[in-house]
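Here is the promised in-class demo. Please do not try to memorize the tokens; focus on the logic of going from shape to residues.
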């Protein structure tokens, strides 16, 4: 394995699969099978999932929700997704646990770095929900924070595109994919890989990121065993 401990960031939208809203059971199962395979191979896995398939705080604020309340609703959406993934993993025999940045026992255990590392060392898949636990921060920033805290070797950002491009490949057919790129070049080009807070945290703490297409079955294994897919972001 190329990495011993990873932080896997999944978008809430990716859980919709072919649906317009909510959670597609087929997509959820695909993810669970891939994640379990890597956990069985000895990779320690922490996961952060967004909540955009259910509610997004920023868009909620644009529709009239007070921003703090909107972000709190978004945090709860990540808990729903985390519980769904945890359930899917357990249903196929994997050991998984949800840790929340906001106290809500018995739904999830309250997050602490010590507890997270303890569970990871035992081979449990840890799903970190509620982002950072504070408003005005995205789940990308939550991923960066958790990745740094658990001392992950890399953050794997699973998206629906196969890496970082010079422009949005879904809108610009001339966009070119990077095999690798530095954080400084992301700033210079104004590329929206993650929000600036999350990107800066990774840069300052020397946490590399691999952006790849998680929706292609087998890609998670490829990233961890062979490499050569997606885009590596580094200092």
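The designed amino acids, position by position:
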């Amino acid at each position: 394995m190329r990495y011993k401990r990873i932080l896997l960031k999944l978008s809430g939208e990716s859980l919709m699969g072919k649906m317009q809203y909510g959670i597609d059971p087929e997509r959820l199962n695909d993810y669970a099978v891939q994640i379990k395979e890597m956990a069985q191979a000895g990779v320690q896995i922490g996961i952060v999932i967004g909540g955009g398939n259910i509610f997004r705080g920023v868009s909620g604020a644009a529709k009239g929700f007070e921003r703090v309340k909107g972000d709190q609703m978004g945090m709860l959406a990540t808990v729903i997704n985390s519980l769904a993934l945890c359930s899917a993993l357990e249903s196929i025999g994997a050991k998984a646990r949800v840790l929340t940045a906001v106290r809500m026992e018995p739904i999830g255990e309250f997050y602490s770095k010590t507890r997270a590392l303890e569970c990871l060392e035992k081979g449990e898949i840890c799903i970190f929900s509620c982002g950072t636990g504070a408003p005005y921060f995205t789940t990308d920033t939550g991923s960066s924070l958790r990745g740094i805290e658990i001392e992950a070797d890399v953050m794997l950002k699973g998206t629906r595109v196969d890496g970082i491009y010079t422009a949005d490949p879904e809108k610009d057919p001339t966009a070119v994919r990077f095999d690798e790129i530095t954080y400084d070049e992301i700033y210079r080009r104004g590329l929206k890989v993650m929000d600036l807070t999350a990107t800066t945290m990774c840069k300052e703490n020397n946490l590399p990121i691999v952006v790849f297409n998680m929706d292609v079955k087998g890609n998670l294994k490829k990233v961890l065993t062979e490499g050569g897919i997606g885009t590596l972001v580094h200092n």
